[in-house]
Amino acid sequence: MGVIEKVIDLIKITRPLNGFMMGVAAFIGAFVVMGFSIDFQTIIIIFIIGFTLNGASMIVNDYVDRSIDLINRPDRPLVKGTIKPDEALSLAVILTGIGIFLSSYLGLVPLIIAVIALIVSLTYNIWGKKMGFIGNLMVAFDTAIPFIFGGSVAWILTGFISNSQVYVSISYIINLYNSIWVTPILLGILAFLSNVGREIVKGIADISGDRMVGIKTIAIVYGSRTAGRAATAFILSAVALSPLPYVFGLLGVSYIIVVMFADIIFIYYIIKLLKNLDPKNAYIVKNGLLKAMLLSLIAFVIGRVI
Q1: Model's pTM, two decimal places?
Q2: pLDDT tens-digit map of 88-138
Q3: What is the pLDDT of residues 249-302, one digit of tens each?
Q4: Which of 43, 67, 92, 257 has the fewest C-beta atoms under 10 angstroms from its C-beta?
Q5: Is 223 left (phi over 0), alpha (psi -120 to 50) or beta?
Q6: Distance between CA atoms of 55 and 142, rounded to whole angstroms?
Q7: What is the 3-state secondary structure (H, E, C) of the chain?
Q8: Residue 243 and residue 70: Cα distance in Å, rounded?
Q9: Domains along the chain with CATH numbers
């Protein structure tokens, strides 16, 4: 095995595309509050935090899932043997240290949010994965929390909360309503709902491997049809709530136009799933839902600019 192959697999094990999305999500959480007034240094720091903490989580996930990946994903570095388990864990520790250190630099509230996200992620990887739907909720939480994290940084920079503040009073909750400060929370809710749906679909796609290692997904415990209906309920809930940022006057008409196309993609793939609950089709649907999520992110950025 060459050095280049090892370096490539060290990068691959962090799931850089997922890390990129988490970094972008954290940035968007801040951008929807501050717009172009946010400084470049803060953007870079926020992005690195999202990227590194996600990378650490993905490494731990692969470490714990080695037996599952022998069936579901035999191409992954730890299964192939190009990366040793202790090397993977060492990289995870380094990435975690970077993410937590930079979070502390941004303020106490971002640090607390980052630590909570890390705890939920580790709990999922070690225990929650085998709990099926509970695990789905954990994954969705960690997917949604970057928006809140980025929003908390913007709240500090704009003076909405103190840099050392760890609580939210009733007055803050009142001020959040119908103001630009609530946008990251709405974004997080939409991301949470859509990702719960996508995780349930993933359970249908991975049903063979999950059954062999005792993961109690909805698809395994109640059947693929029930899992398909549950995924539909969560996805359609996200679709139904997606107009709220425009209705509340937080984002412009460009948002509702772009998010409408994202909603159409969501609905298309959910219909595709309900028509065919085969694991191979569920895998296609899982990836299709990701496209809709990416378009939704674009909608939030465009809606804040135009």
Answers
A1: 0.86
A2: 899 999 999 999 999 999 988 899 999 999 999 999 988 887 888 999 999
A3: 888 899 999 999 999 999 999 999 999 999 999 999 999 999 999 999 999 999
A4: 67
A5: left
A6: 12
A7: CCHHHHHHHHHHCCCHHHHHHHHHHHHHHHHHHHHHHCCHHHHHHHHHHHHHHHHHHHHHHHHHCHHHHHHHCCCCHHHHCCCCHHHHHHHHHHHHHHHHHHHHHHCHHHHHHHHHHHHHHHHHHHCHHHHCHHHHHHHHHHHHHHHHHHHHHHHHHCCCCCCCCCCCCHHHHHHHCCCHHHHHHHHHHHHHHHHHHHHHHHHHHCHHHHHHCCCCCHHHHHCHHHHHHHHHHHHHHHHHHCCHHHHCCCCCHHHHHHHHHHHHHHHHHHHHHHHCCCHHHHHHHHHHHHHHHHHHHHHHHHHHHC
A8: 42
A9: 1-167 (1.10.357.140), 182-306 (1.20.120.1780)
Tokens for 262, please give them. Answer: 């994202």
